[in-house]
Amino acid sequence: MDKFVIEGGTPLVGEIPTSGSKNAALPALAACLLTEKPVILHRVPRVRDIRTMERLLTFIGARVEKDNGGCTAVTAGVLENPEAPYDLVKTMRASSLVMGPLVARTGRARVSMPGGCAIGARPINLHVQALEKLGARLTQTHGYLEAEAPDGLQGATIRFDRVTVTGTEDVMMAAVLARGETVIENAAREPEVSDLAELLVKMGARIQGAGTSTITIEGVQSLGGAEHTIIPDRIEAGTFLIAGAITGGRVKVTGCIKEHLDALLDKLTAAGAVITHPAEGILEVDGRGTIRSQDVTTTEYPGFATDLQAQYLALMTQADGISFVTETIFENRFMHVPELGRMGANIRIEGRQAIVAGARELTGTTVMASDLRASASLVLAGLVASGETVIDRVYHIDRGYERIEEKLSRVGARIRRVE
Ligand code: EPZ
């Protein structure tokens, strides 16, 4: 298993480009199942989760062609195998995103129940309830969810008990081919939901309100092909901005969308980092001043992203004073805390809250990556820790960050991958 070896203490200076969003590319790839025509996606990040989704589409029967850049073309002609098998789903639970498109296109789907993961139980009950409201019959047997809609799907009003990003995406992809109108209330407002809607509309779907809490979809008979560029990855961009702040450097992140990061930018500014927006798509952080402690609570978009909580918490170990980091989305998203503690951080967890006593000098040691964003948090801590930090199991990081060690090295980080 690959490891990262990091020599901390170097302020990062320079420019880092943003890759396409993993969490926008995953539903976009699933949406290709809705038509037999070719769909061409640009700026698809070359990360493990995307490779898993592409393998899943191939398994189902679609043809997937990729260039060595970020272009992926999918042609889902005849889908012999509308199924997501356990060995693929267990490595990437977002495989459940194929359920809605498969039921809508073929009238059936057999998807392995995604197990929980490090950050929580991750149930998909809301996806199931919503598809049932559209007329699908779902049964669970032998660890698989089997969905059937032999007479097609019927539009309905769906109100989610709680906001679910992939739940909203799954149902949107089912509703575009349902008969009549579907209204999704309490929908997720994440930019990745809006990007998926934009692709679906290019394919011929009729969708209003994506990006707001109420999305209205008028079903159509069939969808055509399209060409679409995936939005930049706001979580990757945010991670690099925090890297500039925690190392006391000056980092320019390019190819990102400022509006997607406003909640983080507000926090970094309040914490003493100087953020500038010199041009469209460019954000610059100057972390040379003193970092002050700033409380944060994760909430659904446009609030502070749960996917940036671990990275921000690492920054707060360097801030003067005490900060309270509250995680409201997932029940177990503090896996990075014990590992940061082994590096010298002083953090106490009380339920959903981590209390961080800052301005602690971190020292390098061997730490274990556990989930995607916790691992990114350990990289950030390694960049500022004195001495050498070795991070095991970096496959967690490779799930969602494209060549992170190369991007960081280019701005002065002393980080290398060891096979
Ligand atoms: C998406 O996961 C993202 N993944 C996650 O990013 C992100 O952390 C999360 O949204 C929240 O923003 C993708 O987009 C592929 P949810 P998702 O459904 O859709 C509960 C990363 O690091 N819930 O919005 O699975 C759930 O347990 C990943 O890139 C139910 O109870 O998250 C959670 O507590 C990690 N029943 C809350 O809702 C359901 O049927 C929000 O989950 C569905 C969700």
List keywords for this structure.
419 residues; alpha/beta; four-stranded mixed β-sheet; 14 helices; 30% helix; binds ligand EPZ
Outline the structure in words.
- This protein has 419 residues and is of the alpha/beta class.
- Helices cover 30% and strands 25% of the residues.
- The chain has a 4-stranded mixed β-sheet with strand order 22-23-1-24. The protein has a 4-stranded mixed β-sheet with strand order 2-15-17-16, covered by helices on one side. Strands 4-5-3-14 form a 4-stranded mixed β-sheet.
- Helix 12 (372-384) links the parallel strand 22 (366-368) and strand 23.
- The longest helix is centred in the N-terminal third of the chain and has 13 residues, at 48-60.
- The model has no long low-confidence stretch (mean pLDDT 96).
- Ligand EPZ is lined by residues 23, 26, 94, 120, 122-127, 162, 164-167, 192, 306-307, 329-330, 372-373, 400.
